Amino acid sequence: MTTFVLVHGAWGGAHGFRHVRRNLLAEGHDVFTPSLTGIGERVHLASPLVNLSTHVRDVVNQVLYEDLRDIVLVGFSYGGFVITGSLEHISDRVSHLVYLDAFVPKNGETVSDHVRGEGRPKIDLGDEWLVTGPLREYDDPGEAEWMKARRTAHPKGCFTEPVYLSKPLEDFAFSRTYIKATIAPENEPGNAAFWRAAKLAEASLAWRYFEIATNHMVASNRPAETARLLTQVTNAA
Q1: Distance from C-alpha of 97 to C-alpha of 177, rounded to nearest angstrom
Q2: Dihedral sign, CA of 149, 112, 56, 194?
Q3: CA angle at 64 for the pair 71 and 226, rounded to the nearest 5°
Q4: Which of 5, 7, 171, 208 has the most CB atoms within 10 Å of its CB?
């Protein structure tokens, strides 16, 4: 069986992976879903000091304190920046890296770099260090309401701090997969960057590439399919 570490995206929380987590657990896998500081269930810890390094440490500490090894590390959306930054500390514990409709940054890049010119999220009036995210669509209205009630603003520092990556992703010993949500228009915030990353992965012999026919909210819209695909691609690693 496999140990999965699932890292959620911006404005969300670990609860966004609850359906995928249940599917993977039912198959006998170990599943960890760290919550990033200042958003989701840890929104009470939001402050101007929270940045990308904070979220990298959230994930790294979960892996180190639980002494997880040979893990499948999955990053969704903004979580792609977080898992990339974590490699400096835990790359020797990663067997497979998965970007789930996510940013794939290079050393020194920021989230703002990736979405520049694509309609950046607006900044909350009165709280200049918080960013309000774009509206997202869900297949199930009930899921949409449930997720909307748990959506939080996001500390701006996470989007302006550069990621550190000591060498190209392709030079690490682990295998790599990109999973693209194909019903996701390129003009939605962030999606042009996701499509660029997907096309590069699809064309590279150093990556595996898969698709899911849904919009960006993959884990909520297609949890069973997402879990099956994660299992499939990691078993083939």
Answers
A1: 6
A2: positive
A3: 30
A4: 7
pTM: 0.94
84 with 167: CB under 8 angstroms? no
Question: By C-alpha distance, which of 201, 191, 182, 174 is closest to 92?
Answer: 174
Are 135 and 203 within 8 A, CB to CB?
no
SS (H, E, C) 51-90: CHHHHHHHHHHHHHHCCCCCEEEEEECCHHHHHHHHHHHH
Q: How far apart (Å, rounded) are the C-alpha atoms in residues 121 and 5?
A: 27
Give per-residue pLDDT as tens, 89-130. Answer: 999 999 999 999 999 999 999 999 998 755 444 444 345 899
| Beta pairing class for 130-131 and 154-155 | antiparallel
Domains in the chain (CATH in brackets) are 3-235 (3.40.50.1820)
46, 114 in Cβ contact below 8 A? no
Residue 16: exposure state from Cβ atoms within 10 A (0-12, 13-18, ≥19): buried
| Alpha-carbon span 100 to 82, nearest angstrom | 12
User: Of the candidates 230, 220, 175, which has an alpha carbon nearest to the alpha carbon of residue 12?
Assistant: 220
Kindly report the backbone phi and psi dihedral angles of residue 204, in degrees, each rounded to the nearest multiple of 5, phi listed first. Answer: -105, 135
What is the token pair recorded at 179?
């999973």
Angle, alpha carbons 47-52-57 (nearest 5°): 95
Q: What is the pLDDT of residues 163-182, one digit of tens each?
A: 999 999 999 999 999 999 99
Phi, psi of 205 (to 5 degrees): -75, -15
